[in-house]
Amino acid sequence: MGILQKASNVELIERIILFMSLLEQHAVVKGASWPLVCIVGPLLAKSFSIIRSSDTPCTVGLLSVAVSIFGPQKIVEEVFIQNRGYCSSQLSNDELEAEDFMQIFKSIFVPWCLQENKTSTKATLDLLLALLDDEYFSEQWSFIIDYVINQSSPGCQSGVVDANHAAMLAMLLEKARNEIMKRRKRDVSGHKKGTHAEDWHHEHLESSAISVSRSLPPFSASHVQFMCSLIGGSTEGNSTAFLSRSSLILIYKDILSKLISFIQVSPFLWVQNCASVLSKDTKICAEDDSSLNIVEIYKFALEILDCSFFCLKTLDGESGLVSGIFSAIFVIEWESNLVKALDDSVDESMIKTKARLPFGESVCAFRNKLNVQFMKNLCLDSRKRLLNILIQSVRCAVFVEDDLINETIISLCFTWVLQVLEYVCLNEDEEQTLLCLLLSKGEKWPVFVVPGFSFTKASGHQKFVALVDKLITTIGIDRFILGYSRCNQSTPEVSQEITSPACLAAEILCTWRWPGDSAVSSFLPSLAAYAKRSLPPQESLLDETLSILLDGSLVYGGNDTKSYVTMWPLPVDEVEGIQAPFLRALVAFLSTLFKEKIWGEEKALSLIKLLVNKLFIGEAVNTNCLDIFPLLISILLEPLYSHVEPGRDVQPCSSEDNFVQNTIIDWLERTLRLPPLVTWKTGQDMENWLQLVIACYPFSAIGGPQAIKPARSVSPDERKLLYELFLKQRNVAGESAFVNQLPEVQMLLSKLMVVSVGYCWNEFCDEDWDFLLSNLRSWIQSTVVKMEDVAETAIANASFKEAASVIASSRVEYTYFWELVASGVINSSSQARDRAVKSVEFWGLSKGPIGSLYAILFTSKPIPLLQFAAYFVLSNEPVISMAVVEDNVSNSDLYASNDQELTIEEKVHLKQEISSMVEKAPFEVLEMDLLAQQRVNLFLAWSMLISHLCSLPASSSLRERLIQYMQDSATSVILDCLFQHIPLDISMIQNLKKKDAELSGGLAEAASAATRAISTGSLFSSVESLWPVEPVKISSLAGAIYGLMLRVLPAYVRGWFSDLRDRNTSAAIESFTRTCCSPPLIANELSLIKRENYNDESFSVSVSKAANEVVATYTKDETGMDLVIRLPASYPLRSVDVDCTRSLGISETKQRKWLMSMMLFVRNQNGALAEAIGIWKRNFDKEFEGVEECPICYSVIHTTNHSLPRLACKTCKHKFHSACLYKWFSTSHKSSCPLCQSPF
Q1: pTM of this prediction?
Q2: Can the keyword Transferase be found in this entry's annotation (predicted)?
């Protein structure tokens, strides 16, 4: 007894428990009852009151063990035989009646065990569960639940237990769940009460659970625990629920309703649409809740879901409930991802979006707990529903959200689709279902391959194509096309709503360009690669795509194609100018397939026959076919004659070649029957027939412009007819005084002349050549007049941009001509370029020669070779001296001495075309597409500026003024733009640290270009190889610009680098610079210092290339000092270190001053260190000569602009640097002398 009264005797009580276990074994083996009757019973009877009052877990545990060993009724009987006062009935033969057992259980054990705020609560609950007898189990359990529920505070919401009793029930239920497992182990048959979850169900538990799930805040942790313990399922093996299936469904429906209500108030339309889809699919209507604690309600629902989702899985297949909840979870996570991606882009009207983030992040954390296997183990119906809802959400996000940043929403939707593929799709069939759902027809998709096609594109269409293209690139076109082509067979429920793979290919090609990519650079190469490695059965995909594009071209015409019909293959960049989407796609499609040798002569011939058959409808000409035929015939003829060496009188031998030549002869004869061009009027078919004939005579330019020659072999008959067509135009023109000046007529005549000269020049007589040259003179004169007219119009209407657009468009129409011009310019001498620029001044054009060159360089419709020619002229002598700085800077300024004072007003002014790029454009470009034309223009402008700066002599006044301008006005955001093209991430940084490590394409090109620019001091090679603009090429230019900036503007770059706040970014940039840029830059600096001749016996410099050190020794009048300049490994991003290693006859103050002065000069120098050291020497030379130092900066020579102190105070006579004085006036807000305070 004494042992039980002391709570500290835990070890002794445990020994007693062990002793009881041994007695149990004896009783079981021998069948004896004396251990209970003689030992345990008397012990517990005498100590029961002590056990009740002690409130210690170990003493209560003693009683629990006894009950579990000997049974509830026997223990109660033994305990209360010794205490008969507890019995309500007369005991006979010392046995306890059933009603007495239940009365003692209800009146003594239940109140005691369920008493609140006890130390031994867990132990008493174990005892209470141990007392559940198989015979009276249901009555006992029912009484326990009723007792707790009835004890709940009456102040709670209706049907909701208070927090304390909720905690009690939660603890009891968790222990009951363990009790079930124990009972199952004892009773393998499962016939006894308490071995099944259903035995523990209770109507009050059901009603309380539903009431709590529907209650209003505030919620306590106890209520969450109560709900979680009721539902179970926190772990995979713990899914026993104390609720009926119907109650579980009601609770989870309530949770889904709360999630839907959260979704439907999203500021994003696509999320709201998902709420509608969910409500329709699950038949759950979520009402808007304006409660102030609405977020708390959402969190409460999520917490219940978080600790019970393995139980939720038991309801899999229950009318969309499981799929609905997981769909809501994914969509809320996606919304959170979108908000984070938009970040500062979210405007003030969407501030509440960010307020939703905390709950969204909680949902993200919950979703991360769902592993792939868990999701894929859901039933087929749930996965199908989930797939349908999520893919609808993705489509809606693309098509509905017009205001979102294209790249952001495309990238996120791409990630979401891959996430659905990973988590939901179990096999290829389900992957096909996903593709079918994603690409199924709708109001906004497809746009082109539909009946009644309209040229007005649907909202979000280009973004959706960008998404599809990213998916094709990532998962592979083979997998994409193969899966999509099986949709009709595997998913009959959506087969009528989807497009075929050929329709998909045609749709993408017609879309042509989308955010971040285009059909030419992305989809067509993928399609060509797929066609090359696919089996012959896939030929049907190409044929079907061709059929769709051809039918669309025939129906929707090609009236804008006439200017694109040329005698040589149409370049890809010019195909983009074709406005008719089907025809543009068809031209690119055919060009790619024939160029890649996927289709050959046989296919080309069959297509020519097909088009010839479509050219006539009965006897009438099919004008739509005639419109597009000239453009297509030039593509289709190339594979037929690309292998034949053209020659005179070469007869084709095959029937196929005969068909083509006979067809062309027929077209020539038909064209000869038409009236001559001089009589032509708009609207006649003459133009189309002539275009068709001209297109049949292509030229080959293999080997450059000088190697142009006919690409076809023609028969004498064909040549004769072509020459007759030329003569017809010449003879009529010679006989008539009237000349038809319509542009269409003149253009057709010029093309006809070109093919006639190329294929029939041997037939030409003197009159033919006179006719040709006469027209050439006339066209040149007309071009000059037109240029003058355009210039005058621009001046009169102040609409230079519109005029520039007209001129740019005309250049695109005659690309080959302008490429010939550009080629001549690039190969010209500097004298020729000088004369050309000066001659333009006599034309009186508003922009002048320099402005005109800039207009070509920065045109909205660039021709690569012409653009490079403009850059070539502008960036080389003699033009570059006029191209960067305005004319008010005289040539004498170029070599003006630094001793010449520059006043504050004498600031340099750049050409407007350059200054706008340097000062403002980087901010706009930073947000643009990486291949945007404005971005290319910005880099070219900076290339011009830095190249000019690099070419100026070190002592040039203009150089100093340019550097000062860049420090004051040129935004360093240009460097942020450059590093958008230099791909630096963690893995690449690690590669940079390794010797001989291979770098990725963009980074390797940037590194190589940077090293080359530093070594040569030129950007020319990077600019020359820029066109056609591609990611790797623009990375090369970005690296070259960065490298030359490090060489020419080290302090400027260092200032930008010091302001970087992202440590990862700065570490990556420093690693790139240290590895790829600093070594050649340091070598160049040391080499320049070593070569520098300072022409002074009192000053010497020694260089240690091994230690990257420079020792400058200055001696004067028995005084001197050695200064050591050390270049860091990541120079110039890190400042050089300056130290004094020896001083002689110099005071400590002067020594410190000299040291600080050298430090300022070398750290502020935008140029070579050799210059900075020379300036430092001159500074102290001047000081020894008696030149007064500036009282503001304590230096004779200014550390930045290298001027002398010349502005003197009229009162105290002290002289100041103009820059120092200007800064003093600006910061002090007064114009008095810094020393005597008199007005300056």
Answers
A1: 0.62
A2: yes
